[in-house]
Each structure stands twice: as structure tokens, then as C-alpha cells.
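Bench log. Compound arrived from synthesis this morning; before running ITC I wanted a structural hypothesis for how SN-glycerol-1-phosphate sits in the protein. Inputs:
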Amino acid sequence: MKVEERINKIIEEDGSAYFILLDPEENIIDIAEQVYSYVDAFLVGGSIGISNLDEKVKELRKFKKPIILFPGNVDGLTRYADAVLYMSLMNSLNPYWIVTAPTLGALKILEYKLEPIPTAYLCIEPAKKTSVGFVGDIKEIPRDKPKIAALYCLSAKFFGMRWAYLEAGSGAEKPVSDEMIKLCKKLSGINLIVGGGIKKPEIAYNKVLAGADVIVTGNILEKDTNLAEKFYDSIKKAGREKWK
Ligand SMILES: CC(C)=CCC/C(C)=C/CC/C(C)=C/CC/C(C)=C/COP(=O)(O)OP(=O)(O)O
Ligand SMILES: O=P(O)(O)OC[C@@H](O)CO
Ligand SMILES: [Mg+2]
């Protein structure tokens, strides 16, 4: 079964999914070892620098979880992953991040037989203060303007993208607001991945109730891998309650 199909099935059955972001600059195998029972898929990527990606992702396969690349640039691709978020950073000021980077990666994705998952990557305040905002030349969507984000989601849907990633930035002070998630979902109905600055399981819980289909955490688990189980439980609990 394709990765996107598998994730959609999880969302259908559980009401939500949980991805853990592994930064190839960290010791991802040690982290994965401790958290793999509590994830639906691994996201692998970083915005500043990639080394030994092939080797690390190859080893990650032993955990038998879907491996989805979350490339910060064309060097974020490896044949050892299963799928790739085929992203356009729609609210960048630089066409490189909107369309050139994904275009330059397209042939490699085909050759490596990676499954492309068409994704609108949207950077929301305070992302400008984080690595992705700096690297991605963003025109930041204000945190208190949910309608702007929702319009981007609708536009993404009209372009044929099936996913939108609402990103507050890795390590962000504040995550994307529940109001913004709600409106994005209501207006577009597109699958929503939400990440950046989600530091507590209760916060993840509320994001799922607001309409997030997938929650991503990264930094916080680098500090305390024990949190993975708590995040997983909260995300799944909210997923079940969402249907009621
Ligand atoms: C599809 C292909 C081949 C490329 C797409 C390339 C695009 C559009 C990238 C968007 C811009 C960008 C720099 C995204 C980075 C996303 C990412 C992997 C963030 C992970 O977090 P870090 O920014 O590394 O966090 P830390 O600073 O905490 O390490
Ligand atoms: O590291 P954190 O803040 O959890 O963010 C994860 C991810 O959304 C970044 O792209
Ligand atoms: Mg990183």
C-alpha cells in the first residue's frame, strides 16, 4: 500500500496521526529507537545542512515505519525513504522555494522511486524567527489572520494538492492557533499537517480537535523521548473524540 493511502487509512480509523520529525543532524537512530512504537510515520529533514542522509535513513528502515522525507532543499532526498513531501513553500517571496527547488528534485524523486505527496507548505508567524523562515524567504502569514492561511489552503486544493502543512517553525515560541486550523479545515477540507512549537501533549490534543489530521513534533523529543508516548495518546484520544 502507498504511504499516502496508509496515512489516510490511519486518519480515517483513528481520526488523527502522529509524525515525529527526525533532524538528520541529530543522532536519529537513538531517538527513533526510543519513540518508534508511538509514531505513525517518521519525517526526516532539516533546513540547515544535511550529511550522511543515505546511511542514516537506510538504518531507520529497521523500525518498519513509513519514512517520509521533509526536504529543506534538493539535497534532502535519498532512495532509502518511502515517500517525500513534495512541497511548494507557497508563501515564499522567492520562486526558488515555491517551484524551482521541487522542480530540480523531480527527476531524482522519479529515479529513487519515492512517492511524492503533494503538499502546500505554509509558514505562519512566528516562523520568520526560525530556521525555515530565514532560509525560505517567507512572507509570513500573521498568526491572527486565519483567513489568509485558509485561502492558501483553498488555493492549494484548487491546484490539486492534497495536503497542507501549517508550519510555525521548528522550535517556535507559539504553535499555529486552533482558530487558524479550524478555518483552514472548514474552508478547504484539505488534509492538514500541523507542526512547529507544539511542546505539550495537551496542545497537540487541542490542535486535533480543531481539525489537524497530523501533528508533528521535533525539538521537544530531542530533549525528552519519553514524551512521545504521551503525545501519541493525546493525539489519538482527540482523534476519537473528534468523531463524536
Ligand atoms: C520537494 C523538494 C525536492 C524540495 C522542496 C524544498 C522546499 C520547498 C523547502 C521549503 C523551505 C525549507 C527550508 C524547509 C525546511 C523544512 C524543514 C525540514 C524544517 C525542519 O526544521 P529545521 O528548520 O531544520 O529545524 P531546527 O532549526 O530546529 O533544526
Ligand atoms: O521542532 P518542532 O518545534 O516540534 O517543529 C516540528 C516541525 O513542524 C518543524 O518543521
Ligand atoms: Mg533541525
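What the model suggests: Residues 90 and 152 are 8 Å apart (CA to CA). The chain has one domain: 3-242.
ITC booked for Thursday regardless.
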